[in-house]
Amino acid sequence: MTATITAFERSPDRGNGLARDMRLRWAFEEVGQPYDVRLMSFKAMKQPAHLAIQPFGQIPTYEDGDIALFESGAIVFHIAERHKGLLPDEANARARAIMWMFAALNTLEPPIFDRSLVRILERDKPWYEERLAALGEIIGKRLDGLSSHLGAADWLDRTFSAGDLLMVTVLRRLQGSGMLEERPNLAAYIARAEARPAYQRAFAAQLAVFTAAAG
Prior knowledge:
The chain is an alpha+beta fold. Helices cover 55% and strands 9% of the residues. The protein is built from 8 helices and 4 strands. The chain has a 4-stranded mixed sheet with strand order 2-1-3-4, covered by helices on one side. The longest helix has 31 residues, at 91-121.
């Protein structure tokens, strides 16, 4: 059977590849596997049928035969475990790739995503500037650690892995903020990932959904 994922019918990211179904699309493209997409409205995401799979009413989800999953990181890991191309065969390298998957989602993503929400939802609050500055300081320190580790290497651990895939999808939320430009090796790291044919196919597929909805 072909796996089916869910995605926004009208994505709030306006086709910029920031919605989390992008991670799944990219993972499928990297491992060379087909997938189907079920587009969902915000209303449908809160209906019992979807909540039975995703109790928090979010996307993406993954269904394949008798398995249904939610959480983009867990789904990328599942895809990487089932198909070659995103996790190394050697045990220690595989463990490090999984470590970077967790680092992307647990260490980098929370303050970066919070910054995005604050900029959208709290601009008119009296604490806005202070909150934004505090998040900027946290993010800056974590970016410094990541930049130091990456150095002049192409990828986080020699070869491209699911760890890089998730890390890049997290870091892309900072494009245009100046934070990546201050760390040129991170900006170059993202550009390398975006140049991958699998990324280009995934981005085009997500953009096509937005274009169709907007038209």
